[in-house]
Amino acid sequence: MTYTKRLDGREMDQCREMEAKAGVIGRADGSAMFRTGKTIAYAAVYGPRNLFPRFLQNPEKGILRVNYNMMPFSSKGERVRPGGSRRSKEIAFVTKNALLPALDLSEFPNSVVDVFIELPQTDAGTRCAGINAAAIALADAGIPMKDFVASVSVGKVDGTVVLDLTYDEEAYDGPVADIPIAMLTRSGEVTLLQMDGEVNKEDMKKILQLGQKGINDIHKLQVKVLKEKYQSGE
Amino acid sequence: MGKMIANDKDIVVPGENLAEGMDFLPGFGTYRDGDNIVALMVGQLRISGRALKIVPLSGKYVPKKDDLVIGNVTDITFNGWLMDVNSAYHAMLPMKDATSDFITRGADLTKYFKIGDWVATQITNVTSQKLADATMKGPGLKKLTGGRIIYVSPSKVPRIIGRQGSMVSLLKNTTGCRIVVGQNGVVWVDGDPQKEQLAKDAIRLIEQEAHTQGLTEKIQAFLGGSK
Fold it and tell me: I need a surface site. Which of A66, B41, B212, B222 has the fewest CB within 10 A?
């Protein structure tokens, strides 16, 4: 038994239908929405702003704080308990590490840039959607970035390497590996690489190549929505 | 010979290649990566000769020397006042730069400025850690009493001021309000309440249409039409 036809009829190397928009939250300094299939992520960026408590301040450069939250009604079936969890804390941590290499916060000593990622609806790939939205929002906030970040999940469903898994594929009845990847789009540096499940060396190479392809597509969309917003002057 | 990849006045995004070759020079908002010049932020590209720079279209205010800013007094220290200047950093207004009065040691500084007062000041000095000093010795620098405060995006301030102050003097002349525009995106308007509101609406319109051509005429029509 192999996975020859995807559950939602996509090609194996095809992302879900994507949509993005910059500047969706009026009171934030920068914001963005990113949707892939049924997964929707909103990101709001505040700052650079004053950082307290003072012991967190870094006199050499600004720091980045990331908050990740799934809304109670966001998932399939069961209600997500509101508030932080072990999972959300970990995802916030890896998201921060994925975004930070792209930023240049040396101009903002002792200050903080806050990123809030909210997910009103989820269907797998939330950390990737969150990173994509956050990257647009950070650029929208006018924060200096040496590079841009885009992210996608690649996986292996019952022996077949596929791009941008849905929840149904993650829960497929058979061996599944799910590998979220985030890359800097200029340098190609990998800033997020996690794995749930098992793959062999050859498949891992294939997965990274496929991830690169997906990330290129997503980056094009990110650039497009940013330029659209500023060409029309908000 | 290097070649340009982006064009003058293009909107560019971070990480975008702007030009190739060592004969171009990276200016504000850009950096050099190997042979390429790369954008650091979202903004409009300006090419002047061999130098490339980006005019940012968003972002918070960062204190710069000689900027006129409007600050809100947040704290009183031994030798002056701390002001919030709509930025990640405070500005310090020392006693000796605030007034020429002789102030005895331990005097009550709230006689001059209380917490919550608005002051038009000029930044005199900024350190590498972005600690900013301000002064009130200069033309037009004063305590702002009455009127109202409007926050605008700091990147739109040049349009509100206009070339050689043309836009702000248009606003002043047609509404009869006293207006001070701070580089930090804080605008103070004082006058007849209805005229204040008119000036505020006009400033909001400038903010919205900041990217368009012939803005002065548009604002003239707006102010004339709703008189």
Answer: B212
